[in-house]
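Lecture notes, continued. The same structure-token format from the folding unit now serves as the input rather than the output. Read the line below as a description of shape only.
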């Protein structure tokens, strides 16, 4: 039996990219997974593929997000692991930035994590060897380009939130891990509005990015840690990016 066998795992942003890869990895490892993401054909397709419950929701909507988490936990019959993966990154400079993009990043990358975590904590406290895994970014530690500024600020915030949750929940036996990938070939660049920037980022992701499945393998590494071992932070880079 694998170490994820029977564990109940909720993954946000699960319809594509890293989230979908994590969901597939957990299911293949014997875990039971529930999917949260914006409603889409991709979400429905993954739910059918894995035989997993899926709840379509905008996690920036506080009331809807809380209700979606509670519904997913009911579908799973409880919760052992929360993976906070959902996020957006409409990169750009501040001087010509769109405040709507800034709000979208703050609402999902920061407030969404808080809302989902708050809603999930009661179920986690009743779970077995409970864990929270927050998917961050190397941008949360070092800003490598000006166009990352606002996005990086949200990921810096996630570092602090992870530390705070770890302190808050340590006495309850909940382990909290921040997993911070570098570039990942998710196709997310396609959703950036600026055409020139979109092209540059797509090339970077393709040239040096990790495959989402490689990030998912590292999340499994965290979930496989013995109950007495607390992996607090894990940074994951492609060797191509590291050497570049």
């Amino acid at each position: 039996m694998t170490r994820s066998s029977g564990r109940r795992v909720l993954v946000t942003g699960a319809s594509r990219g890293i989230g979908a890869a994590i969901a597939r990895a957990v299911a293949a490892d014997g875990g039971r997974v529930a999917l949260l993401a914006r409603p889409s054909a991709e979400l429905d397709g993954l739910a059918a593929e894995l035989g997993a419950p899926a709840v379509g929701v905008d996690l920036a909507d506080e009331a809807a997000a809380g209700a979606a988490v509670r519904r997913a936990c009911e579908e799973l019959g409880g919760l052992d692991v929360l993976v906070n993966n959902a996020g957006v990154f409409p990169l750009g400079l501040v001087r010509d930035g769109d405040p709507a993009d800034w709000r979208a990043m703050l609402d999902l990358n920061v407030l969404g994590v808080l809302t989902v975590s708050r809603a999930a904590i009661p179920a986690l406290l009743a779970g077995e060897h409970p864990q929270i895994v927050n998917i961050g970014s190397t941008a949360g530690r070092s800003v490598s380009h000006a166009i990352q500024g606002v996005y990086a600020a949200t990921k810096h915030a996630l570092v602090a939130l992870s530390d705070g949750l770890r302190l808050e929940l340590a006495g309850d036996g909940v382990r909290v891990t921040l997993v911070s990938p570098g570039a990942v070939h998710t196709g997310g660049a396609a959703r950036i509005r600026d055409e020139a920037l979109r092209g540059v980022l797509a090339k970077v992701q393709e040239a040096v990015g990790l495959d989402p499945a490689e990030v998912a393998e590292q999340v499994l590494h965290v979930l496989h840690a013995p109950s007495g071992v607390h992996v607090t932070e894990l940074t994951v880079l492609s060797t191509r990016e590291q050497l570049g």
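Point for the exam: The mean pLDDT is 91.
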